[in-house]
Amino acid sequence: MKEVTFIRRNIEKWKKTEDIAENAAKLSPDRIADAYTDITADLAYSRTHFPKSRITIYLNNLAFALHNEIYRYKHEKKNRLITYWIDEVPCAMYKARKALLISFIIFNVSVLIGVVSTLGDTNFVRVILGNEYVDKTIQNISNGTPLAVYGSNPEVPMFLRIVGNNILVAFKCFTLGMFTSIGTGLALLYNGIMIGSFLTFFYQHALLGQSMITIWLHGTLEIWSIIIAGAAGIILGNGWLFPGTYSRIVSFKKSALLGLKVVVGTVPMFFIAGFIESFITRHTEWPAIAKLCIITVVLIFIVYYYIYLPKKKYYGIKKN
User: Fold this and answer.
1) What pTM was estimated for this model as a whole?
2) Domains of the chain: which residue ranges?
3) Residues of the chain with pLDDT under 50
4) At a CB cut-off of 8 Å and minimum separation 6, what does 226 contact?
5) Which tens digits make up the pLDDT trace of 218-236?
6) Do 196 and 113 touch, CB atoms closer than 8 A?
7) What is the C-alpha to C-alpha distance for residues 285 and 290, in angstroms, rounded to an integer?
């Protein structure tokens, strides 16, 4: 790439980076760190191809200014744990919005595949969920307690097992992105087919309504967190596949940091979902209105924290 082309492609971004450096006190550490990552990647390219150019000196000074701001934040920000959850994770979610949409679409198409496959072949659910689970559930249905599986184990061991398993699934979905985003896509495909097959199985036994209102008590957070983990894996994989103007290694590192922040943001959700599944879902005798209230509160939280707040934070930063 010629120097003039390099400058023309990036000049607008550099102007915005100058604004960030000048207004750093008003911005989140995450925003400054991202700008620093971008500018150091451009500086590395400029040093390699235009070592004696004035643009290299300019980029070096700009990177130095941002570095000083980051260093200042390390010493001054004592409430980092709070700002991480109220600023950094929402900002990361805004950057991940396209990957989140892709993950959401893949998952829902997979659910549809699971529904169609189970309707077309009664043995398909056994392939996906296993004979032991299906036989046990059929026995529970015949006993008049179709969802007794949720109350079959003590609360605390069940809570620890569920949380551990869900976190493992989420990070597996994320790390599969190291083998390109196709790996994450396949993980989403499997999980979506499993959910579709599961729901269709209860539909075939005329228990869809009862199962839905019980399962989505914990499933709303659980499934949404898997979709977010899928988005993180897609980000990781796309950083390797589509480096853009960065080197492939720089692009991968940048995507890995963003993807990790996104998937770490799901961990508290798994604890909440695990608590609901272990201590609340087992109470199948609870009235439907109480369960619907819990599901509604969870949905409001998801929409606010993962959709509304990221957009609000982004445009708030942009104004500054």
Assistant:
1) 0.74
2) 3-78, 95-319
3) 75-76, 320
4) 107, 166, 169, 170, 173, 188, 191
5) 889 999 999 999 999 999 9
6) yes
7) 11
